[in-house]
Amino acid sequence: MSVETGAHEPARDACRDAVSGVWPIHVRLSAHRMRPSNTTAPSCAKHYWSLGSDHFLCCKKLQKTIAADAMPGVYTVYYHEGFTGRAQPLEMMLAASKATNFCEWKRAPWNTLDDPTCFAAPAVAHDQTKKVISQTTAAAQWLGSELRFFPPTGIRAEAAKLAMDIAEVWSEAYGKRRGAPSWAAVEDFISGRLLKWFGVMEATAQKHGKGSWVIGSVPTYVDFLLCNLIETILFLFGEARLAPLKAAAPKLFASYAATLAIPGVSECKSEFPVLYGKVGAEGAMPFA
Predict the structure, then answer these.
(1) Largest CA distance in the chain
(2) Given 29, 50, 69, which residue is the final one in a domain?
(3) Are 165 and 129 in the same domain?
(4) Axis-axis angle for helices 88-99, 221-237 (nearest 10)
(5) pLDDT per residue as tens digits for the range 176-234
(6) Angle at Cα 145 formed by Cα 139 and Cα 147, nearest 5°?
């Protein structure tokens, strides 16, 4: 591939990942042409796309490579009705991609999925190929690769590690809300174990993220998983109780705000609550 000289590392990474089959969010397919998610596609053969401090290379050969391997179509998210829970990050990614005309998606009740490979919700399916993936982290990784919310080649293991941290914290927080005997016990959990977890995730994001994002310099599936985690703990514990976490993990909360600002995401979030009322901060304590 012939490219203009002067490309710095982010540009080279974007070009390399595009050829290998994984592309950053700013390289998007809309209808039959390429364009960044929030600007106009250049008509020239070679051009830099700029967003903040990152520059991504575009050329005719790269356009053809991406267009040939894109997976447009309709995706279905299977989950319980009335709230979004662990399906929320999958829905947010799909909503963001729909906002750029990259795909369509819909919801379906969990009990309508007949697939022996799936044990529990959520699951996401591609209607045209019949591919189905369950387990939130695995489904998010797959959608990230299909919808261009995937991390750079060199830090994919770190992305998976942070995604698994998020899954652990989600389970612990949900279990603590349901099992705690009092709000005092919840506050001890927040100021102790949960604060330690957020410190670990913040350190990971500071080391491997750039700008507002926790892995690399563009939004990835990990940012959507983190957004769902913060939405969940806000629902479970209430905003006032999370002050220690906000102070200790500014980059995580910056990612949360930036993810919600992606077109389509806030609208998706507002359609259903993240969890059911009884387990929320206004619900009974102990949980009943």
Answers:
(1) 64
(2) 69
(3) no
(4) 130
(5) 999 999 999 999 999 999 999 999 999 999 999 999 999 999 999 999 999 999 999 99
(6) 95
